[in-house]
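hi support,

uploading two proteins for the ticket. first:
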Amino acid sequence: MKKINGLCWSIVIVFLVCLVCSPALAEEKIGFYDMDHVIRNSTAGKKSIEELKKIVDKSKAVIQEKEAELQKLKDELEKQRSLMKPDVLKDKEATYQKKYRDYQILVKDSNEELQGKQQDMAKEFVPEIMKIVRGIGEREKYSLIIDVYTVPVAYWNRTNDLTKKVLDEFNRTFKPKK
């Protein structure tokens, strides 16, 4: 049994030595980039983010106005509840509930509009960035390039960080479709 155990360990050690000393592994070149950083810091990305902020600010103002209106109705309802007749109270509560549902729909619609715009931005930018990354990989003979924004990577050597190179090329070559 000890001979078989020793033989297994010998095979494992030989395999590991071959693996470590393999010339093919010595030639492997792996790069990294951050897609989110490229999008957020590119000229086109900054412009799109500004447009998104305008949408958010516009929606936020309308939503805050509706919130204030709801709060006012709720406060009036609470203050006057004991003084109102049951049928008047029922009407006021129904009005409040309807306005509250309208408010919820407004918030939902605003969020969906924002998500749609974000998806449109990604659909426009991501394919172009991927072309640039593939080009860099082919030109500079990378075996693998990983997007650290999409794939969690605990550590990578920053000398192989291609984010700035991808960003510069994206800024230089990207032409918005609008």
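and the second one:
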Amino acid sequence: MQAASIAAAESIPHKFLEAILIQLRHKGIIRSKVGKGGGHSLAQEPDKIDVLGVIRAIDGPVAPLACLSHTAYQRCADCSSESTCGVRRMLAEAHELQVKHLSIMTLADGLGGLETPVRSRPSRARH
């Protein structure tokens, strides 16, 4: 599809979409062809592209704390001990569940609508 068509269909600014498409192309998620008959297409089938990879391609690390990041780990400057950090412990499990869930979800899961079950979807606790 051409970027202009996608932008119009999704009601998003063309320049904003172009920036996203560049990031997705650099990560190998989409292919782009210039010229007549050109446009953008997925580099793989939708069931082979995990949502976690797409989010990381667009937004970067998904961790709520740098010390929990799988792709951009950094020790927190004001932390004396990661093993005893209460904030880190509190967020670690939620982050691991998020990463696990997003890594098993694929673009194909989103194409089927909300009623389509995601493989091994964790149950959602109500609080």
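thanks. also noticed: The mean pLDDT is 87.
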